[in-house]
Predict the structure.
Amino acid sequence: MKVLVTGASRGIGKAIAEKFLACGHSVTGIDVVPAGLSDKNYRHAVCDIFSDPLPDLGPFDIVINNAGVQNSGRDIDVNLKGTIRVSEKYAADNNVKSVLFIASASASTGSEFPEYAASKGGIVSYMKNLALRAAEWGATVNSLSPGGVNTGSNEHIISSPALWQRVMEETPLKKWASEGEIAEWAYFLTVVNKSMTAQDIIIDNGESARANFVW
């Protein structure tokens, strides 16, 4: 299948792109930086999803909205408005079989930077809107809301014994997810899943049961 992944050069987005490539799919990535991987079945577009013209890349079978920023002063613009732009151009299309949004556990708990939490909450709401429309042609639309993930952007917490201890006090399972695990969830929700739609799945090792934000 033909898959679009935004924010594909690093972190969770790169792991998702690698998972789909490993499973034999054709992947197109969009990111504000050059490609972070090389594969004969991968193509890449450098683009700011909020401010740049979106290139004509489709049609796609699967659209995965992962691109985002955190506490940047642009969280609403990029995370919410940019994601809506991408979805309306590439996902609101009866060729699409599945759409996935990478939101955040903070969309439910509110335990994050204010504009970041609001942007991710907006993504979950917009996901449900698109799910209702896409149901007309049988597509599934869901969101995946990770809590803590072992990514480079969280290195200041991972490498700090004091911060890590505080985070683990808020995390019942006493661990974070890996990027690869989130990629496995993304694959399941878009390829294996055929009947669940308009749902937000929280993968946070139980942290949302407590919801005290540590940074």
